[in-house]
Amino acid sequence: MPYDPAYEITTKALNPDPLAYQPGPAPAVMLPQEIPPGVQLVTLPGGQRALAYVQPPAHTPPAAPAAVQPVPAWAKTTALLAPTIGFGIAAGGIGLSYAAPGLIAMSHALWAAGALVAAAFIGVPALISGARRRGAGPTQITQNITANGLFGRANGTINHH
Asked: For the residues of the chain, what is the DSSP string, one character each?
């Protein structure tokens, strides 16, 4: 059975004179989306462009492995400390949430103590001056205090005149 191709393949140079103007290749008839997989538009050694199945070279060199660089010590330390610091902050937040009622009560007590001290600084002198005005005459108070040694017990007397 003789070989009878459906299409005869021929090639023809565009212009035999290499110095003459040669028009560019004819525009592709197919859209890029219509080209089947594995087919590419290639330029032949004669300058012609054609669709062809492209195969990779038979002896493709293997890809060179990437150079392995050691991980710096500071990066290891940071990576190990990050969860520890995060858990510490979380534990502190949980502790503060449990301690919040006690802290609120202590702040109220401190405000009450501050108000008591302020009232004492204002009220005690007012009471003393009011008591002096009511008295019949001036009162003189004399104190005699004695102590023996640095850590000795102190004894004293108070005399009202």
From this structure: -----SS------S-S-TTS--PPPPPPSS-GGGSPTTEEEEE-TTS-EEEEE----TTPPPPPPPPP-PPPHHHHHHHHHHHHHHHHHHHHHHHHHHHHHHHHHHHHHHHHHHHHHHHHHHHHHHHHHHHHHHSSS---EEEEEEE-STTPPEEEEEEE-
**Model confidence over 111-135: pLDDT tens digits?**
999 999 999 998 888 888 877 766 5
- The answer to whether the CB of 24 falls within 8 A of the CB of 17 is no
Structure token pair of residue 2: 């003789």
